[in-house]
Amino acid sequence: MTIALARRYRPRRFADLVVQDHVAAALRGAVAKNRVGHGYLLTGPRGVGKTTAARILAMALNCEHRAADGEPCGECSSCLKIWNGSADLDVVEIDAASNRGVDDARDLRERAMYAASQAGHHKVYIIDEAHMLTREAWNVLLKILEEPPPGVVFVFATTEPQKITNTAAPVMSRLQRFDFRRIGPTAIQQRLRQVLAAEHLDAEDDALVLIARQADGGMRDALSVLDQCLSFGDGILTAARVRQALGLLDDEAYGEVLAAVADRQPGQVFAIMDRVADAGADLAEFAGGLAELLRALVMRHYGAEPEGLPESTRSLIAEIAPRLAPEDAVRMLKLLGEAEPALRRSANPRIGLETLLLRWAMMDRAVDLRAILAGAVPLPAAAGKPITERTALRLEPRPVSSDRGAATPVAPAEPTEIGLRAQGSGLTEATLAATWSDVIATATRQSPLLGQALAHATPKLEAPGMVGLGFGPDSALFQDGAARQLAAVETILTATFGTPVKVKVQAASAAAAATPAQSRRLSAQDARSERLTQLRSRDPALDAAAKALDLELMDDG
Ligand SMILES: [Zn+2]
Hints:
Layout: H1 5-8, H2 21-32, E1 39-43, H3 50-62, H4 77-84, E2 91-95, H5 102-112, E3 123-128, H6 135-146, E4 152-158, H7 161-172, E5 176-179, H8 185-198, H9 205-215, H10 219-230, H11 239-246, H12 251-262, H13 268-278, H14 283-301, H15 311-320, H16 326-345, H17 349-362, H18 366-373, H19 389-395, H20 410-422, H21 429-446, H22 448-455, E6 458-463, E7 466-471, H23 476-484, H24 486-497, E8 502-507, H25 510-514, H26 524-538, H27 541-544, H28 546-556
Parallel strand pairs: 1-4, 1-5, 2-3, 3-4, 7-8
Antiparallel strand pairs: 6-7
Helix pairs in contact: 2-3, 3-4, 5-6, 6-7, 8-9, 9-10, 9-11, 10-11, 12-13, 12-15, 12-17, 13-17, 14-15, 14-16, 16-17, 18-28, 21-22, 21-24, 22-23
The structure holds zinc ion.
C-alpha cells in the first residue's frame, strides 16, 4: 500500500461525496446547465470534502469527456492533473493560511485577468482556509467578483464562515454558499467498509467504530487513521489492534472508573490511574472518553440512542446505567468540564485526573439528596425536643418474638389469618410477603424514595388490617422516610389488598431503640441533613428549589 488510502479513495465524482448530496447535486446541476457562478463559499468542519468538492467542480468544468449530468470523467488528462493537485494552468489552489497578505491578492487579481488556457476551459481558484485572508485581500477579491473576467470561478473553503462575515460581509453577498455536513460515524464506517472491500481487507465492526470515533466527522482523517491501523499488523483489523495503534484504552478501564464511582470506592482510583498511566494512554483523551460514556449514559436514560459506540461500550453502559443516576452523570460531566482546561494545560495531568476521579467517587448521589430533601433522614435537630408521639412509636422496640419470624408463635398467627379471611380481606402474612415486591414497585412509581424506604423494611402483619414496617438499625434513614409518608403507604396497601390498612413504623431491633436519640453520633450525612433542615425551616420556598439547591451542596461534598 504505497499510496495513502485517503488519497487513493478521494472522490473523483460529485456522486462520491459522502453525505454532501445536497452540495453535490447543486454543483453538478450547475455544471450540466452551464450555469456555474463566479464565486462559491464552501463551509463546514474539516475533512468533510470541501476542497475535494472544489476540485471535482474544477474537473467537471474542464473535463474532456464530461457526462451530460455534469459529472467529470475522472480519467482524462485534465481530470487527473486536477485531481492529483499537480500544476495546472487552469486550476490554482491557494492556502490562505500561508498566503494571506495583500500582495498575494494583487497577484491574484493580475493572474485572474488572464483567461483560461484554452477556449471552453475555466480558470478555477480554490482558496482554502479562506477565513485567514486579510481585509485588504478581501477588498481586492471583491473588486474581481464585482466584475468577474469570463470563465473565472473562485471557490472559497472555510471552517469558520463567521470570520469571513466579520471581515468581508460585502463579499459574502456575492458568493453562493454551501454548508457541508459533518459526516456521521455510520456513514464513515460504511465508507471504510467499502474501501476495505476494494483493498480485499476485512475488519471487525468495533474496529471501524473506533476509527470513526477517532476521526470525529472527517472522512479524510478516518482514512488516514485506517491506514495507520492497517500498517500496525496483518490479518483482519481487530478493535484491539486499533486501540493499540491509537493508544486507546480498552473499555475495562472506563468500566472500572464508573464502577468505582457507582460503588463509592475512591480507594480504587489510584490503582486505575496506575493502569491507565502504565498503558501510556493520553490522559486528556481518557477524560474525553469518560465524558463520551457519561453522555451516552444520560442519552440512554432518556431513550435516545448514542451513535458510533462500539458494542463493548454499549454493554458497559447498559451494565452501569442502573447504578448511576442520570443526575449524577450530569454532575460528573460538570466537574469534568471544570477540570478539563487544567488537564490539557497541566504539566502533570495525572494529578488533575486523579483528583477528578476522586471527586466523582466521593460525590454525593442524587438519590441521597432526594432523600435528604424529602426528609427521609434522621433529624438531629429534633434530638433536643420532647419526644413526640410519633417518635416514640418509631423507637418502640419491635417485639423480639416477631423478629425474622423464626420465634413467632404459630398458634396466635393462625386465628389472625382466619379472622382476616372472614372479613373478606386478601391481607394475610403470606399475601403480604408475596406481594411486597409489587408494593415496592407501586411506591417507586409514586416516589423512588418511598420505594427505596419500603425496600429496606420488613413488613409484618401486626394485627388484622395493621401492618408494621420493621427497620434495622442501619436503616434509620429509610425508617424516618417511611414514617413521614405513612399515609401514602397506607393508601398503597389499601389499594393493593382491597381493605383498609393501617401502617406503623418501628425499629427492627431493640438495640437501635435502646440508643437514646440524644446520644446518637452525628455522621457527615446527618450533619448535612441538619444543615439542610435548618435551611428549609428558615425558608419554606427552599423545598420547591430543592433540585437547584442540591447541585450546589453536592459539589461541596
Ligand atoms: Zn475528465
